[in-house]
């Protein structure tokens, strides 16, 4: 009897979300193009365990952390010439128990590596006070996408009016020499992502954006195109939020409920765009951005959070990360004091 192919985590989350919306199991199977038995098993597991995660398996304990696995993959994607001995040596310089070459090779195999270079331009905000849309970062945009990219796939899901939003983006990118296709104009979003030369996800409401990405079944496709195929990804505000591990550190109201807070996972940390410093002279008694992030880090196993002030940009090329723009960024790490970084700072350590 042939072994049944497991549903991806993204598909399982979509199954549960559609069930919560009142769809029958047959309707869910038809919509997601999976078997009825697959839907039934997913919902049964959710009912029995309260989770749709894979069950814990027996066997020898895993000797690498999820962060180390991500580091191995990102460094290999960033530099084709890196070999397993170099990756092992880099990791072992900070470990008490050294990793074997076999373990590193196995992690590369598990990741399904087709090694290319990853490029991200993660912008805190799309508009600076006193200037137009993307004016403050337009030079970085042209340097980032370069001359090889002719057409950019725009994802306007963060705002309600996709038509109006697309016109704004299309008009701006035209002045920079790029054509724009909007994903809402296509009948096949997955195909659009697979054919994209570059991707730009604009700002708006992060919850609406993430829900739409999962509803369109393109989260995994975007991750694959960026991490494995090496196409450039640009995000502003909410588009930057969803590129990280999760949207837990967004500033937005949860106007809709995505199936999960997990982001696309292009970097192994979180970002807080539009980061604002607390004003000690203010009479406002509500929570500050800093307090919100501190409360986030009161929960266990929470990753670093990079607070990008307006005007800040993070450029990621392979396993190298550089802070660009005109303002400083603040790094929050659970259990440690915050650290300020100037524009031009090398933040590559965040990718390890």
Question: What report would you give on this structure?
Answer:
The mean pLDDT is 87. It contains 13 helices and eleven strands. Helix 1 packs across helix 2, helix 1 crosses helix 3 and helix 2 crosses helix 3. Helix 13 links the parallel strand 6 and strand 7. With 352 residues, the chain is α/β, with parallel strands linked by helices. The chain is 36% helix and 13% strand. The strands form two sheets. The protein has a seven-stranded mixed sheet with strand order 3-2-4-5-1-8-9, with helices on both faces. The chain has a four-stranded mixed sheet with strand order 6-7-10-11, with helices on one face.
Layout: helices, strands, pairs:
Elements: H1 9-20, H2 25-32, H3 36-49, H4 66-78, H5 84-92, H6 101-110, E1 119-123, H7 138-145, E2 151-155, H8 162-175, E3 179-182, H9 189-194, E4 199-201, H10 206-215, H11 219-227, E5 233-236, H12 238-241, E6 270-272, H13 289-296, E7 305-308, E8 312-317, E9 320-325, E10 329-332, E11 339-341
Parallel strand pairs: 1-5, 2-3, 2-4, 4-5, 6-7
Antiparallel strand pairs: 1-8, 7-10, 8-9, 10-11
Helix pairs in contact: 1-2, 1-3, 2-3
